[in-house]
Amino acid sequence: MRTDTGGRGPTAAVSFAWLTALAWLAALAAALIHGPVLTLAANRLVPGVPVSGGSALGPVLPAILALSALAAGLLAVSPGRRAGAAALALAVAAAGLFAGGLGHGAALRMADQPPAARAGLGAGAWLAAALLGAALGLAVRRCRQPGLGLVVVGLGLVGLVAAGRAGLFDALSLAVEYAARREAVHAAFVEHLVLAGGALGLAVPAVILLSLWRRGQDAVGIAIGGVQVVPAVALLGGLVALTGGLLRAVPPLRDLGLSALGPAPAMVGVAAYLLLPLWRGLAAALRAPDPASLDAARAMGLTDAQILARLRLPLGAPLLVGALRVAAVQGIGLATLGALVGAGGLGRIVFDGMAQFAPDLILLGAVPVVALSLVAERTLSAVEDGMRAGLPA
Amino acid sequence: MSLRPIVTVAATGLALAALSHPAVATRIAKILGEAPRRALDAERLLALALQHLVLAGTGLALVAGLGIGLGIVATRRGAAALRPAIDGVAAAAQAVPPVVVVALALPVLGFGGPPTLLALVAYGVMPVLRGTVGALETVSREAREAAEAMGLTRRQILLSVELPLAAPGIVETLRTALVLSIATAAVGALAGAATLGTPIVAGLQNQNTVPMLQGACATAALAFLGDAAMLGLAALARISRPRT
User: Residue A13 above 70 pLDDT?
Assistant: First the structure.
């Protein structure tokens, strides 16, 4: 696609920006005014009665909408950095008011209810959160400040945790569910990190070893590509059966703590899927220097090892980090399935929630998974961008 | 191009399908030292495979329609401003694994096919959209300008120049989407959809290895056979592509 706006000149781009801003604002208003922002239920399992934003958020609602309208207007008027920064401040304020208003609204409704009653977040709240998040992302991009996104996300998380500690969200059922299972969630979070990190730790040396096997490159490529075709549920099931057989054939392995159901098959299974992105990244990174620089390096008498250390790795570093980013996001997602083979992790909370048909329990497992992969994605892509900026063009 | 990769993939699929046959799977389980338990008969396995295929196929059709349609819209003139937004949403969508989508849709849509279908679409649309945009971008400016100079309308340029030239890239994207939707349909077993994932999940819960192996081999077989079919389609698209 060309970056110009065709024959219609800059006016087309401007009116398009206004159209997008208006559509965004209309969607936000619809989600907050008409959408079910909260759902009130007698207990954690029955479906709740929807409460619209108009009555749940009260006087905060017009303030949120006004701030959002200003932010959208600023983003539509100018693509500049100053407008972006102002829009960012406005959007952060709107998001803060929204979070506070939800907690406060839920607390008001729960005040005279029996302890089993729950105030859950409704579809309107999730939609509004996604829309506000999109506006925040655009505003951050407009500021053109590397690393700003991470800072905003970090400060946002700190703010949410601090507000939660202060009891602002105590009436929301997600917080109630969390309070009841704090230990289990923390343990699952650590297990999840170990599972995803362990898989990455297995896959990285495996890819390096495989790439050293010069003769078998074609076969390795086909095998690694083939693994991607196998559905994860099937691979995990097959690995459990194989591990069971292996343990029966070599019983001493049991003494090492290996078991057919548990973290071992899950880690191996997840690692198998991470081979392809890492393999491709490594191959691309080694090819990063152009042939002329390689010839020059050889002419200067550098050995292959020196060329690797001084030329290929520094030039290919952003590509390696990019591959690591893709693998990390995939690993965090796939580790969720590990609970299926008894490996624990956040997936266990998700599956418990599915078994009990309890939406808040599912969210309690799902939200950290999504947050983890977004943080991994953002962090590693910031590192990647930083490396690219440091390279000679 | 040679047919070898297609044959290799198809042969892998057929071999896995053979492994899922009750008699073969029982023998493998015996080699692995599992207690012999009742296997799923071939009829039940075929019925599950058919349901799996219908679910994944419906998902793929929805994903293809939405993804390619939106991809075409995103590459039209005047929509260039949408590109960063598309890339952002695509990256965000990848952060939500299919299991999580299935799980989140469960309380809203109930047990069975619908949450799985939603997960199929939610997870598949963005990669197809991105792939379509990428494929359409490879169409050279010269080809487009030549068509314009010949007096073709925008719709004619799209239908008889851009789409045929981009077809191999789009088919390649759909191939990934098919593999993805077969995997997601297997995950749907967790939400109670009757697919080839069902015997795997049930087998894991009951420590019943034979149906688990059968389900795993059959699911993988379906994925490889689907992949082979798409590879064949891609070869056709490349053959019938107009020369530039």
Answer: no
Those residues whose C-beta lies under 8 Å from the C-beta of residue A278, and which sit 6 or more positions away, are A203, A204, A207, A323, A324, A327
In terms of CA atoms, which chain A residue is nearest residue B96? A370
> What are the C-alpha distances in Å from A203 to residues A228, A285, A312?
14, 17, 21
Q: Is B205 helix (H, G, I), strand (E, B) or coil?
A: helix
Which residue is listed with tokens 């539509």? A76
Q: How far is A326 from chain B (nearest CA, A)?
A: 10
The pLDDT > 70 percentage for chain A reads 95
CA dihedral B234, B238, B239, B244 (to 10 degrees): 170
> Torsions phi, psi of A297, nearest 5?
-65, -40
When scoring A222, A233, A253 by the number of chain B Cβ atoms within 10 A, the one with the most, hence best to mutate, is A233
Question: What's the whole-number mean pLDDT along residues A306-315?
Answer: 83
Residues with Cβ within 8 Å of residue A190, at least 6 apart in sequence = none
Residues 6+ apart with CB under 8 A from B215: A234, A237, B20, B40, B48, B196, B197, B198, B199, B200, B203
The tokens for A203 are 């896959």
Judge contact between B133 and B71, C-beta under 8 A.
Answer: yes
* Reported confidence tier of residue A4, pLDDT bands at 50, 70, 90: very low
d(CA B60, CA B72) in angstroms, rounded, equals 18
Contact at CB, A249 and B100, closer than 8 angstroms: no
Q: Which residues of B114-153 are buried (b: 16+ CB within 10 A; e: fewer)?
A: bbbbbbbbbbbbbbbbbbbbbbbeebeeeebeebeeeebe
Work out the mean pLDDT of chain A and round it to a whole number: 84
3-state secondary structure of A119: strand
Question: Can you tell me which residue has the tokens 């070898």?
Answer: B4
Question: In a mutagenesis test of the A interface, which of B100, B109, B130, B148 is the best target, namely the one with the most A β-carbons within 10 Å?
Answer: B100
CA A151, CA A239: separation in Å to the nearest integer? 41
Q: Of B127, B36, B123, B50, whose CA–CA distance to B87 is shortest?
A: B127
Cβ–Cβ contact A373 with B under 8 A: yes
Whole-complex ipTM: 0.81
**pTM, full prediction:** 0.82
Contact A139, A21 (CB under 8 A): no
Using DSSP, state whether A121 is helix, strand or coil. Answer: strand
Q: Do B97 and A240 touch (CB under 8 A)?
A: no
Chains A and B form CB pairs within 8 A to the count of 178
CB-based contact A363:A122 (threshold 8 Å):
no
- A:211-230 residues touching chain B, CB 8 A cutoff: 222, 226, 228-230
d(CA B74, CA B2): 34
Query: Residues for chain B: how many in total?
Result: 244
- Cβ contact B200:B184 at 8 Å: no
Identity of the amino acid at B191: A
- Asked if B100 lies within 8 A of A244 by C-beta distance, the reply is no
